[in-house]
Design brief:
Distance between the termini: 10 Å
Number of helices: 11
CATH class of the largest domain: Alpha Beta
Order of helices and strands: EEEHEEEHEEEHHEHEHEHEHEHEHEHE
Pfam family, one: ADH_zinc_N
Protein name: Alcohol dehydrogenase catalytic domain-containing protein
Largest sheet: 7 strands, mixed
InterPro entries: ADH-like_C, ADH-like_N, ER, GroES-like_sf, NAD(P)-bd_dom_sf, Zn_alcohol_dh
Keywords: Metal-binding, Oxidoreductase, Zinc
Organism: Natronoglomus mannanivorans
Helix content: 25-40%
Length: 339
C-alpha cells in the first residue's frame, strides 16, 4: 500500500508498505479522508511535541472504514465508518484513572509517535475509533477532531448569552470556535486574523465583527467596539505572534481566556494583566471528551465545514497538497487527502 513518510527535516516522500494485520484489540481500517493539520506541517519541519518519533507517517484527522476486526473486538463491525481520536494510553496511571488519559504517563499519539493516516490502510486500537452516523460526510468526519479540540478547551469556560466573545485566528480551530460560541448562545463574536478570505468565512459562520490585524490594532479596535469594557470570553486559536498578550489586553475584568494554539516557543507576557483583571486562563490541546458532542452538533446543523474544508487532493498528489497548505495557496483553510 501507499504510505507518506517524513523524518522531520523538511521533506516528505512516498513509500510502499505492507498492509498491516490487526493485532488483538485492533481494527484494520481503510482510510477515506485525512485532514492536513498545521501540526502535520510542523512535524515535517521537525517541530511538534517532545514525544514525536521519526520516521513517521503523519495524519491524525482521520475518517476511515472498518475492513477487519482483530481478536477481542466487539465494539465495531466491518463496514462501520469511524473517526479517529488518536491517543493510545495505559489506562492505569494516575492521569488515566482520573479520566485525563490524554496526559497518560506512557502516552502514544497516532500521527505523532504512531503511524497515522497518510496511507491507504491502518491498524488502530479499537478504543481510538468512534462510529459515525450515516448522515455525516467523510469530510465532516475528518474535521471532528479539529472542532473537538476547540470544544475541549471551551468546556473549561463558562459562557452566557449576554457575553461578548473574541476568537483570535481564523483557521479551522478558530472558525469552529465561532460556530461553537454561537451554538452556546453567544451572539456577539469578534474574529481577528490576517487574511480577508478567512475573515469573510468567519462572517458567513456567524462572526458579528471581523478585524484584520494587518489593517488595525486589534486591541484598540476591540476596546472601541466594547466601549472600553473588553470581551468576556477570548478563544485563542492562532498559536503565533503576540496573540497571548492580545488576549490579556482585550479581556474584560473577570474575563476568561482559552489558549488552544500550539506555539513554536516561549512568549513574554505581563502577569499584571492577569492579576489586576483577575483573569481565568486555561489551555486545551486535545479533542478528549468532546468527540461525541461534536458529532451531535454536526447532526443538528450547529456545525458546518463550509468555508473550512476548501481543498481536496488524492493521496498520490500529497506533495502538491502539502505545498498548498504550507504556502497558503489559493485561499486554502483546510486541505484533505483522499487515499
Amino acid at each position: 500500500m501507499r504510505a507518506i513518510v517524513t523524518d522531520g527535516d523538511g521533506s516528505i516522500w512516498e513509500e510502499s508498505h505492507d498492509r498491516p494485520d490487526p493485532e488483538p484489540g485492533e481494527v484494520l481500517v481503510k482510510i477515506r479522508a485525512v485532514g492536513i493539520c498545521g501540526s502535520d506541517i510542523g512535524l515535517i519541519e521537525g517541530e511538534g511535541p517532545p514525544w514525536k518519533r521519526y520516521p513517521l507517517v503523519p495524519g491524525h484527522e482521520v475518517c476511515a472504514e472498518v475492513v477487519e476486526l482483530g481478536e477481542d473486538v466487539d465494539s465495531l463491525s466491518v463496514g462501520d465508518r469511524v473517526v479517529l481520536h488518536g491517543f493510545c494510553y495505559c489506562g492505569t496511571c494516575t492521569p488515566c484513572r482520573e479520566g485525563r488519559y490524554y496526559q497518560c504517563e506512557d502516552l502514544r499519539e497516532i500521527g505523532f509517535t504512531v503511524a497515522g493516516g497518510y496511507r491507504e490502510y491502518a491498524a488502530f486500537p479499537a478504543y481510538t475509533l468512534n462510529p459515525i452516523p450515516d448522515g455525516l460526510s467523510d469530510l465532516e468526519a475528518c474535521q471532528i477532531d479539529s472542532a473537538a479540540c476547540t470544544l475541549h478547551a471551551m468546556k473549561r469556560l463558562e459562557t452566557s448569552v449576554t457575553d461578548t466573545a473574541a476568537v483570535l485566528g481564523p483557521g479551522a480551530l478558530g472558525l469552529f470556535g465561532v460556530q461553537l460560541l454561537r451554538a452556546r448562545g453567544v451572539r456577539d463574536v469578534v474574529l481577528t486574523g490576517t487574511r480577508e478570505a478567512r475573515l469573510e468565512a468567519g462572517r458567513d459562520l456567524g462572526a458579528t465583527k471581523t478585524i484584520s490585524v494587518r489593517e488595525e490594532d486589534p486591541v484598540a479596535a476591540i476596546d472601541d467596539y466594547t466601549d472600553g469594557d473588553g470581551v468576556d470570553v477570548c478563544v485563542e486559536a492562532a498559536g503565533a505572534g503576540d496573540v497571548v498578550n492580545t488576549c490579556l489586553k482585550i479581556a474584560a475584568k473577570g474575563g476568561q481566556i482559552a489558549l488552544t494554539g500550539v506555539f513554536d516557543g516561549p512568549r513574554e507576557i505581563d502577569p499584571n494583566d492577569v492579576v489586576a483583571k483577575e483573569l481565568s486562563v486555561v489551555g486545551g490541546v486535545t479533542a478528549a471528551h468532546a468527540v461525541d458532542d461534536v458529532i451531535e452538533l454536526f447532526e443538528r446543523g450547529d456545525l458546518t465545514i463550509n468555508g473550512i474544508v476548501t481543498h481536496e487532493f488524492d493521496l498520490v498528489d500529497y506533495q502538491e497538497a502539502i505545498q498548498c497548505v504550507r504556502e497558503r495557496r489559493d485561499g486554502v483553510v483546510k486541505a484533505v487527502l483522499r487515499p
